[in-house]
Amino acid sequence: MTKKAIQDLSSIRNIGISAHIDSGKTTLTERILFYTNRIHAIHEVRGKDGVGATMDSMELERERGITIASAATHTEWDDHFINIIDTPGHVDFTIEVERSLRVLDGAVLILCSVAGVQSQSITVDRQMRRYNVPCLAFVNKCDRSGANPARVADQLRERLGHNAVLMQIPIGLEADHVGVVDLVTMKAIYFEGDNGETLRYEEVPTELMPEAEARREAMLDAVSMFSEELMEAILEERVTEDLVHDAVKTGVLTRELTPVFLGSAYKNRGVQPLLDSIVRYLPNPTEVVNKAIRLDDESEFEVPCDPEASLLSLAFKLEVSPYGQLTYLRIYSGKLSKGDTITNVRTGNKVKVGRLARMHSNQMEEIEEAGAGDIVALFGIDCASGDTFTGGEIEATMTSIHVPEPVIKLAVKPKDNKASANMAKALARFTKEDPTFRSYQDEETQDTIIAGMGELHLEVYVERMKREFGADVETGAPQVAYRETMRDRVDYDYTHKKQTGGSGQYGRIVGKMGPSEEEDFEFINKVTGGNVPTEYIGAVEKGFKSCMAKGEYIGFPVVNLRFELNDGASHAVDSSDQAFQSAAKGAFREYYLKGRPVALEPVMSVSVEGPTEFQGDILGTLMQRRGMVVGTTEDGGFVRVDAEVPLAEMFGYATVLRSVTQGKAEFSMEFARYGTAPADVAEELREKWVAKRAAGEH
Q1: Which of 111, 282, 574, 579 is the most exposed, fewest CB within 10 Å of its CB?
Q2: How many CB atoms are closer than 10 A to CB 277?
Q3: What is the pLDDT of residue 119?
Q4: For residue 24, what are the CA distances in angstroms to 47, 52, 104, 239?
Q5: What is the predicted pLDDT for the residue at 46?
Q6: Distance from CA of residue 88 to its chain's centroid?
Q7: Do residues 22 and 91 touch, judged by C-beta distance below 8 A?
Q8: What is the pLDDT of residues 104-121, one digit of tens each?
């Protein structure tokens, strides 16, 4: 493996492997590594040997049989250098796909030949569009019962809007799947040997010839739209393989054509022709346009993929490794060598490159230098995900990564003091590593809250806290920020009198308190005749205001109250600011509960979007949560339901919504208003508050 920068940029391919969960991404990557002599034995994702796939290096990934973090590797095929990133399929780890696609030049979209286009295939496709990533499609699992690759290609056209073209047809399906017919060369390819490493080329079987000819004609028809030369050659019946390959590449680069390949990664069929196609059709770093933003005037400019230009690179992923913080870097222009000093554009800090490496899952190979178009890893550099590094000559930053907002929250509590310190370390690390993972302390409840993309997302981080940081934590739904207020207006008359040695405390106040239509806190001074001296009016207001922080009914902040001060009395010696503040607090404690207080709960404005076929299911999930539908709109097979739902009912909603809509619906929510909580909720909160006060915890 070369330790120098790769000089011929046309020989580099930076590709991602993306798909719906369980479509075979990691299994395909394992085969690619085997056929390119990167590994010498194949291990399965859920293999009985207990080793696990190479790219699933995290213990949790091997246990659960899923990919959690995207993993990078570097391999060679047909004199080309290929950087591969295997990304997770689960929607909870969507940021891993986002940041991988942001730095990749091309991608392989894997589809299951039985399930076809699934919910996460739609999400991944949307992400590819966002970053304008050209792709090939690989229809996997052709050995499975019910496999139908032609139907999957149709779904690609109908559901994802791709100009999908079959480049191969299968030789047998399900248990009879033994190979593929290449429609460009019109040869049958069989995969033999223990691991399908020997390719045998034969003539197309007679029984498949009519289908092969029809599919080839359809393929040439679609592909010729991207080459006038090929169009002429078809008319003159002098089509060559090179003409077809050139036309396909033109279509792929503009994202106007998606060639479809077939096989079964698990049964070792169809992987080598896919590798040939990756090298042949996906772009090299010089064939894609990358943009950066100047810091002085925020104007965009194209970044030339030139090793001789100024260094411009993007840290797209951070990871804790046995060697310290590992920073994955995509170099867009310039060169990076061991010992170089580079500048973090966001912080302005200059750092020295101590170690430079190419990654192979969780193993590393140290290199001396790397150039434009390459993906490398740095060690021991302090930065955040999405930081731009330059050589210091250029003041610019790469366009940022789209970070979706978290949709679910959990309260976490350490079980002991040791766990507390370790939990803080873990949270600091995870928030730096993953932009969709947030952590903060709730000002009202003092709970430590973690927020993420789904219950699995947070579950994995809680498990990682335990394993990687030794932080044993308990989790629970975070306390909802309830409020309370009064329903009725009451008259108060309260005297605060306290006599100790020396001067005592005295203050009497008379007035009304009750609900306010106008604002959270309203104080009206109607005192005449100086019974409450002017200098103590502010103290009364301050005393009442301090009572709003924690009410007497359920122990939550009080809102929408109006206090009127009509009369009172003072003492020449014993009256003071402190005495009148205490009088206001005493009046509140004594009279507040007489005004029939109510508990208020936060009501969220929830917007759910999904396919129209699931409209009834979506409405059902909202109704079960005391939701009130305020409107529905339909557009192009999709429906949007707007509703108001109490926040207390929204915990776990992401998982429920995904399960009833096969993962095809998504939702967003934001605070709308406070509404009266039901009597049973209020009663439960009241009981908890009374018990807390009795235990002296308030």
Answers
A1: 574
A2: 22
A3: 62
A4: 14, 14, 20, 35
A5: 42
A6: 11
A7: no
A8: 889 999 998 887 887 667
The torsion region of residue 196 among left (phi > 0), alpha (psi -120 to 50) and beta comes to left
Distance between CA atoms of residues 55 and 34, nearest Å? 12
Supply angle C-alpha 341, 368, 388, rounded to 5: 40
For the cut 70, the answer to whether the pLDDT of residue 57 exceeds it is no
Interatomic CA distance for residues 370 and 41, integer angstroms: 29
Taking the complete model, does pTM exceed 0.90, yes or no?
Answer: no
Nearest CA among 557, 545, 554, 556 for reference residue 588: 545
Strand (E) or helix (H) holding 676: strand 666-676
Q: Which of 554, 549, 550, 543 is CA-nearest to residue 597?
A: 554
The rounded Cα 259 to chain-centroid distance in angstroms is 29
pLDDT over 70 (residue 21): no
Extract the runs of DSSP E, i.e. beta strands, from 380-489: 388-390, 396-398, 408-414, 438-441, 448-452, 473-476, 483-486
Please give the single-letter amino acid code of residue 649. Answer: E
pLDDT at 658: 83
Owner of token pair 């299951």: 112
Q: Report whether 313 contacts 329 (CB < 8 A).
A: yes
Say how far apart CA 57 and CA 69 lie, in whole Å. Answer: 9
pLDDT tens per residue, range 582-614: 999 999 999 999 999 999 988 888 888 888 889
Residue 640, token pair as written in the block: 């949007």
Report the distance separating Cα 295 and Cα 87, nearest Å: 32
Question: Model confidence over 535-549: pLDDT tens digits?
Answer: 899 999 999 999 988
For residue 427, give the nearest of 464, 401, 457 by alpha carbon: 464
Q: DSSP assignment, residue 301?
A: E
Is 61 a residue whose pLDDT tops 60? no
Q: CA-to-CA distance for 545 and 631, rounded, in angstroms? A: 39
Strands 341-344 and 350-352: antiparallel
